[in-house]
Amino acid sequence: MKNIIVGGGIAGISIAFELLKRKEEIIIIDKKTNTASEVAGGIINPIVFRRTTKSWRIDEMLPKAINFYKQLEVLIHQQLISPITIRRFFSSEQESDTWVKKQKKEGFKDYLAELTEEDSLFSEVKNEFGSGRVKNAYWINTKKLIEETHAFLKKENIYKNESFEYNDLDVNKKKYKNIPFNRIFFCEGHQVKKNPFFNQLPISWTKGQLLTIRSQNLYNKTLLNRKCFVLPREKDVFLLGATYEWNATNYKTTIEAESELLEKFNYISDEKPEIICQEAGIRPTTPDRRPFIGCHPTHKNLLIFNGLGAKGYLIAPLLSKELIESILENKTLSSETSIHRKVKH
Fold first, then answer.
1. Same domain, 182 and 261
2. Strands 204-214 vs 223-225: parallel, antiparallel or unpaired
3. What is the mean pLDDT of the chain?
4. Domain boundary pick from 92, 122, 140
5. 151 contacts: CB under 8 Å, gap ≥ 6
6. pLDDT in tens, 104-131
7. Is the domain of 279 the same as that of 311?
């Protein structure tokens, strides 16, 4: 019997390929309604800048993510993952001092480049308090990944571009429409609000907006970060992001978000970029910034993989593997991601 996967963003794709590797039958049902996975920066950054700490479980997450995207590249014959250097511009002398203290520590040496005089004097853009370079960061071509992976799945006849109809699901008979199923994985992102089995989970809509800009004079050798990110995409074209708008109610782009991003861009450069386009996506976020993973308390063959937030491209590969192992190999899921954990709304 088939495993039905509802949702074709990075959550659904990572579940799909973990199952396919194990020779499990799958079908993806995906309406492709404003997927945050496509409207995303796709930046895998191992460092959380505010306190110069490491991203959650980065030492486990990063190798799995790199391996996953490289395997996916082979399968769909497209380049998806590229190494990048992130140049972080410090917001204070204290942040610079913290970087210096941590750069030689065992847990940070793989991610923080040791500061040099060049970092302090870097003058291609604004650099009031100096800057540091993050190593082992990556960029995922999100649009290509979604489009080409869906094309591959369609060719394999395991992708349906349609809405999932909850009224057509018979949990007791393990049948959806005319499809008998073994399990259903709900990977709907923010659309979980419509899911009668999991809509009680505190998963919020957090809108993120991005600008694609053009600038002929902006430094383009690294990703630039201070209050926003500026990611070089092609000659003179950059991605500028991203906003965080909690409790969003729609997918619309706004002039307020455009103004906010341009204002933050001014912390990096006095350039007046040309705006090529503006996009918005809805991230599924949780109060404690940890995803919800696991099976329904009553219907054990209904599972959820959701709430990946802004770091979906980093965390989805490892966490999807852990979910599949919990089902097929009876391994225990982390309490940090359990759907039964208590979180403050």
1. no
2. unpaired
3. 95
4. 140
5. 76
6. 999 999 999 999 999 999 999 999 999 9
7. no
Token pair, residue 298, equals: 């009553």
pLDDT at 290: 96
Euclidean distance between CA atoms 256 and 194, whole angstroms:
28
For residues 31 and 173, membership in a common domain is answered with yes
Tell me which residue has tokens 């705006």. 275
**Among residues 2, 333, 14, 3, which one has the least CA distance to residue 189?**
14
What pLDDT does 157 receive?
A: 97
pLDDT at residue 38 in the model = 84
Residue 269: count of CB within 10 angstroms of its CB:
17
CA 107 to chain centre: 23
Q: How far apart are CA 253 and CA 34, in angstroms?
A: 12
Check residue 344 and give its pLDDT: 63
Claim to verify: residue 48 and residue 18 sit in the same structural domain: no
CB atoms within 10 A of CB 46: 21
Residue linked to tokens 């219907």: 299
Is 80 exceeded by the pLDDT of residue 286?
Answer: yes
**Tokens 């861009």, residue?**
265
When pLDDT is averaged across residues 149-176 and rounded to a whole number, the result is 96
Cα 101 from Cα 278, distance rounded (Å): 39
The identity of residue 198, as a single letter, is: F
Domain limits for position 85 = 43-140
On whether both 135 and 65 belong to a single domain, the answer is: yes
Query: Quick check: 249 pLDDT over 90?
Result: no
In the prediction, which pLDDT does 34 show? 62
Find the helix packing angle between 312-328 and 58-76, rounded to 10°. Answer: 90
Cα separation of 209 and 200, whole Å? Answer: 27
- Chain center to CA of 155: 25
